[in-house]
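User:
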Amino acid sequence: MLTTTAAFTVSQAQAAGNLNVICSADVVICEQLKGDFEKQHDIKVNMVRLSSGESYAKIRAESRNPKTDIWWGGTGDPHLQAASEGLTQEYKSDKLGDLHEWAQKQAESSGFKTVGIYAGALGWGFNTEIFKEKGYKEPVCWADLLNEELKGEVQVANPNSSGTAYTTLASLVQIMGEDKAFEYLKELNNNISQYTKSGSAPVKAAARGETGLGIVFLHDAVAQAASGFPVKAIAPCEGTGYEIGSMSIVKGSKNLDNAKVWYDWALSPEVQSRMKDAKSFQLPSNKAAEVPKEAPKFEDIKLIDYDFTTYGDPKTRKALLERWDEEVGSIAN
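Assistant: Predicted structure:
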């Protein structure tokens, strides 16, 4: 059973055959990973599901007495920040050479303190029935999200808690320039009904008909469509950023050997090929893993040359989040 509380006891962390994992992906893939790993290993997994920002904050807060061994999933920027602050530790898996170049570069840029496990492009998913019923124009560009008809119809996560939303913020800054990006975000706020905690929550709300559109990673929108909901995924015409979902071993892990077992296991093509069974449609990092047919193809999307090093840097991240709090969060609906 996957717990939603962030508490690990010291006795659990020190017991033989235990592994404490934070999972920053959708709860369905988190539960699948936990179940598959425990079936194949004599190791009990104590897992919590937290968004990327929450995971980073927890690991940082517990740095003097780590209660987590492995942090799996979530956007790469907070993983890179944790690496630069010495919160995670170097590990070179034997499977590193089996990974796509973008995953290997993620590892190299962090001093091998994190590694890419999947990739996904940013965009949005909208409820086609709501848009048809209300006569809304299909939004194909970032600029379209500012249309007055979408007032109260857009959701996006809060970048302080969500890696998805921080990637959105950093992407817009790289596409528009910082000042214009913040002008855009302040104008977009007029159409925002809610800033959620979780990055995938906005498109789930759109799927349920609670809002018209959610700004998310495209694979999260595709997952809702694959589940039978009237959701269409869109990659913005001006260009968009992308994530390299990452995995890190926490520095001071009390179950280090078990953490390395998980790490190697999670990089295998067999494990990554199973992600689609949990309706997780990212691009896997292992070159031999099966790419889900539903996965958005990078070659069909106008991707920016996302600067992971700069926007994963603690100073840059802190400055952008502080400006968002001051200029956008302060006027949030």
